[in-house]
Design a protein that fits this description.
The protein has one domain: Up-down Bundle (Four Helix Bundle (Hemerythrin (Met), subunit A)). It is built from five helices and no strands.
Length: 160
């Protein structure tokens, strides 16, 4: 297993972790259950770690696929450029979740307010990482292109 494999495996963690954590946190807010909110914070922290690993293994994954026929350099660059935004949001989410975890454990009156802020950050993070995943999928998954749309790196002569 090389870093490209690790990149492809771990990239799913922040996508699913951010939305799963948001659902768990919504339930925790609804029921006002401290343990459920703590579970959500832990999911977010693990997702932030996963996003960091995904980002750090991205360069090695790029080296693996950039010379494969049909892979367009601009598609890789779009994915890489947008990944910075997703990573940044997950760093903020991880820090906010650690803060929320400590506030929840201290039984502070700020617990609900912090949970709502963390929920907002998680939804933004999900949007950013979903877009990053979509751009990453375009590198090798040409089936996600809409019918008739040009595939990056493909010329009109390739269609013949």
């Amino acid at each position: 297993m090389n870093q490209a494999h690790i990149h492809l495996l771990v990239t799913h963690l922040p996508v699913f972790g951010s939305i799963l954590g948001a659902l768990v946190l919504i339930h925790g807010l609804w029921t006002r259950n401290k343990q459920t909110k703590i579970a959500a914070y832990n999911i977010f922290i693990i997702s932030a770690i996963g996003a960091t690993i995904a980002y750090l293994t991205g360069e090695a994954a790029e080296e693996t696929v950039e010379n494969i026929q049909g892979v367009a350099e601009n598609t890789i660059e779009n994915h890489e450029d947008f990944a910075v935004f997703a990573l940044s949001s997950f760093i903020v989410l991880g820090i906010a979740s650690i803060t929320g975890l400590f506030i929840a454990l201290k039984k502070s009156i700020l617990s609900q307010a912090v949970a709502i802020v963390v929920l907002c950050i998680s939804l933004i993070s999900f949007g950013l990482v979903a877009r990053t995943a979509y751009l990453g999928g375009q590198i090798r998954h040409t089936e996600i292109y809409s019918q008739g749309a040009p595939v990056p790196g493909q010329t009109e002569e390739d269609d013949d």
